[in-house]
Specification:
The structure is a single chain. It contains 15 helices and 24 strands. By secondary structure, the chain is α/β, with parallel strands linked by helices. The chain binds fe (ii) ion.
């Protein structure tokens, strides 16, 4: 038996390749599918089946892409009218070599969510592992707000029943393979582990210690932001998207070309915030490399061509994959030689001020400062730097009227990365005096400075 976890950084997405005796299945493939082809080739296997645990909302699934390349059948839950693939129902059984895969309907995150159990018939009739999608994670369970606030109570009840009636009875030793790991927008407190079991989750997962009533109340009280691109991913994953066959070839763009096309493209600088602060192309958005999966969907549109800028042009291809997973087929090219080539060719540059938490501590009584916290609202409510105002990064641009133009804007977040994105947005929108607090609240607390909360 071959079993491999394919992780996609940033999205904290996990897909799985499982195979036996020359046949294989892939669970929840991402859109850049070359990795599954590489695994299949390495183990001399044919991918025959593709499963989607649910209609994913945070990325565009690669099922059609992979299916086209390997001629595999796609199966997903029967509770939604997909325009491709085949509906899988409770109890449906699929054979992959000695492996027997069986479908469990486990609604709650979405109505059509399924889990898939695996038995190795050569070894035992017992369930060995289960792919739980967004129903059950390590230390967490899935979101129940996908259909809107009015549906959360019903979905939470449904999720509780799916977990307690379908997944937990599978047996203490059954390995749980969820669709996301720590850091995903699909679960608040997912633990950072690769492997967990039903027994371990029963003992340690705080959500599984609750009664049904407590569980539903907890889910109803839970708060999440829904990035605007989710709607597009949901449609994509229900209707299917264009087949890429391979990653698009990005154009290498000279500094002169970029200057000429600047007004008609979206330029994203993917360097870290301190590099961006030290010098950048005026009018560019800064989203640090690893922040692209979580934040591109808040700020980039799907029509205007996207041009990427990094330090020297060498880190672009990872970003391209991140964007393709979010269906940004309008990615156009990258600045040849990166920002280094820009300033060497005398392109205009701007800077953003930075400060340490010690400097902030000394200056925070200055009445001309507007201290802006761009973390999530509930993080700010729980603990913040005294005197700060909160606007979550994702909704900052829509709420700029709350940020005074006549003050010095000092931005902080967890450690300075999201504050870097916010600083670039403020600069683009005409704020002249913007400072990013490097280290942000993490460094503030490390220095022993006081925080306050409700
Ligand atoms: Fe999901």
């Amino acid at each position: 038996m071959i079993f491999e976890i394919v992780k996609s950084k940033g999205l904290s997405h996990k897909s799985y390749f499982i195979g036996s005796k020359g046949a294989a299945a892939v669970i929840d493939p991402r859109r850049d599918v070359d990795i599954y082809l590489d695994i299949a080739r390495a183990h001399d296997m044919n991918v025959e089946l593709i499963f989607e645990t649910h209609r994913n909302e945070d990325y565009t699934v690669g099922s059609l892409e992979l299916s086209k390349l390997v001629d595999a059948e796609i199966h997903h839950g029967a509770g939604l009218d997909f325009e491709y693939g085949n509906p899988a129902h409770e109890g449906d059984i699929f054979e992959i070599g000695s492996l027997q895969l069986e479908v469990l309907e486990t609604p709650g995150h979405t109505n059509e969510s399924i889990s898939i159990t695996v038995k190795d018939k050569d070894a035992s009739d017992d369930v060995y592992m289960v792919f739980t999608g967004d129903a059950l994670f390590a230390g967490e369970v899935g979101r129940c707000d996908i259909y809107g606030p009015g549906e959360v109570e019903a979905m939470a009840g449904s999720l509780y029943d799916s977990i307690h009636e379908k997944i937990l009875p599978l047996g203490e030793g059954v390995i749980i393979c969820p669709a996301h790991g720590s850091g995903s927008v699909c679960g608040a407190e997912i633990r950072d582990v690769d492997i967990t079991t039903v027994g371990y989750e029963k003992k340690t997962n705080p959500l599984l210690q609750k009664t049904r009533k407590e569980f539903v109340e907890h889910k109803v009280a839970e708060r999440f932001y829904i990035p605007p691109y989710f709607k597009r991913m949901e449609l994509n994953n229900q209707q299917g998207v264009d087949i890429l066959c391979r990653l698009p070839q990005l154009r290498s763009i000279s500094t002169v070309e970029l200057q000429e096309m600047f007004e008609s493209v979206q330029v994203v600088d993917v360097r870290d915030p301190e590099s961006f602060a030290g010098g950048h192309i005026p009018g560019t958005l800064n989203i640090w490399n690893e922040g692209i999966p979580a934040f591109a969907g808040w700020f980039l549109n799907y029509k205007t061509p996207i041009v990427l800028v990094d330090q020297d042009g060498s880190r672009i291809h990872g970003v391209e994959r991140y964007l393709i997973r979010l269906d940004y087929d309008n990615i156009y090219g990258y600045l040849s030689g990166g920002f280094s080539s820009w300033f060497k060719s005398a392109g205009p540059t701007e800077t953003i001020k930075t400060c340490s938490v010690h400097e902030l501590r000394e200056e925070m009584e200055d009445p001309s400062i507007f201290l802006l916290d761009v973390r999530k609202e509930w993080e700010w409510e729980e603990e913040r730097i005294r005197g700060s105002h909160n606007i979550y990064l994702g909704i900052l641009e829509k709420n700029l009227k709350e940020v005074p133009k006549d003050k010095k804007i000092v931005v902080y977040c967890d450690s300075g990365y999201k504050a870097g994105v916010a600083a670039s947005i403020l600069k683009i929108n005409g704020y002249l005096d913007v400072t990013n607090v490097l280290g942000s609240i993490m460094a503030w607390k490390m220095a022993g400075y006081p925080t306050s909360g409700d």
